[in-house]
Amino acid sequence: MGKVSAEQLGSEPIGKLLVKQAVPASIGILVMSLNVLVDSIFVGNWIGSIAIAAINVVLPVSFFIAALGMAIGIGGSSIISRALGAENKERALKTFGNQITLTLLVTVSMVVLGLYYVDSLIPAFGGKGAIFGPAKIYYTIVLYGVPFLALCMMGNTVIRAEGKPKFAMIAMIIPSVGNLFMDYLFIYVLDWGMHGAAWATTIGYLLCLSYIVWFFLSKNSELKLKFHHFGMKGTILKEIGSLGFVTLARQAVTSITYLLMNNILFDLGGEAMVAVYAIIGRMLMFALFPVFGVTQGFLPIAGFNYGARKYNRVRQSINTAIKYAAIMASLVFVGLMVFPGEIASLFLSSRTDLPAKELAVNIFVLEHAPAAMRWVFAATPIIALQLIGAAYFQAVGKAIPALLLTLTRQGFFFIPLVIILPYFLGELGVWISFPIADILATLVTGYYLRKEVRTKLMKV
Fold first, then answer.
1. CA–CA separation, 35 vs 183, rounded Å?
2. Whole-prediction pTM
3. Got the DSSP string for 236-291?
4. 170-225 pLDDT tens trace
5. Alpha-carbon span 273 to 257, nearest angstrom
6. Can you spell out the DSSP letters for 19-59?
7. What is the tens place of the pLDDT at every residue in 220-239?
8. Counting C-beta atoms within 10 Å of the first and last residue's C-beta, which end of the chain has fewer, N or C?
9. Mutual angle of helices 193-217 and 14-46, in 10-degree steps
């Protein structure tokens, strides 16, 4: 498989190492994103555009609970990378055991709460009118599988922290392929509608978890847990929490963003406008996969070398990651600017015998989505600096700056903009909030990253 050992993170040339880490991460994210994209295309063509809007309403709730697993994973993996860099394997093992225990406790509790408050949560996130019924069906079934997803998210980051990016890639591919196959079977063949879409997603999560469990039980993993590693230790939990809170806060803000956007857009244009945002949201997940892949590949390299006090390699990894991510972001930008209409049309059924309301929604989406997409992605070429900068502080265990920089774009800039601008500019005010927030957040991140490099990483 061309494995990358933990030791190689501190010795191989940075460019070569980043490619080894980032390419599998990018492929894994691509397949996961394609899964969401094709899933939406299937749902839009086989069930209807209202169904896409319904899934968009559910995503922030299920993703927030899943993000608990990712937060625990990334927080703990930062400790694991630095512990392996400092040759302290017992600390790495104890951290991993604590991650598993904490993920199970937190996510199961959240699922119970999520199911209890189902009738309040769905309308709060924009599931109103014709959207409520299909959203409740999808939400209830998918929520049962969210603890599996949370464990997958957590385990995947640990696999990458071990220096095994190809196994992490496979872990991301398995649920995606499984979900698409189940989509075809449950929605198209068996005609289960929203029930089919939800069960396909949940079974995909279970397949992923099965593979991750196999990886850690096999000889491929260096982290062989014993029973005492699962006992929770306060100092490790505190560090996991402080670093993981960065990821959790980012997802919490993302969920708030969905809540605001779905409600603001519903008021501006009803279900059809929510469907426009649902398509934009899918592209936000899908189109930037190479940039997210570089960011994921960068994390263990920066963390390991920082733990090993190889600051010159940390500087090299920052510069190389920003360069690679910027190139990828620019290519994505060109594609989205040239083909927004063609992209939007993929999500909509071309049948002419649809009900009148469904046809009206489709026409509205095709009229509004292209301009919206161009505005939303207008600042894409510069986001590399923003993402890598925030990721650096997380990788090296600096929780407060990582948290602040992570919240800068959506929390400090985007949310205030999207609340204020639509009052003056209507629909346009919603879409131009995206590039303005990107530009402001990039400027802030660039300032703090440059200051950090000059003051902390100039040691040899």
1. 10
2. 0.72
3. HHHHHHHHHHHHHHHHHHHHHHHHHHHHHHHHHHHHHHHHHHHHHHHHHHHTTHHH
4. 888 888 888 889 989 998 899 898 899 899 989 988 999 999 999 999 888 878 88
5. 15
6. HHHHHHHHHHHHHHHHHHHHHHHHHHHHT-HHHHHHHHHHH
7. 887 888 888 888 888 888 88
8. C
9. 160
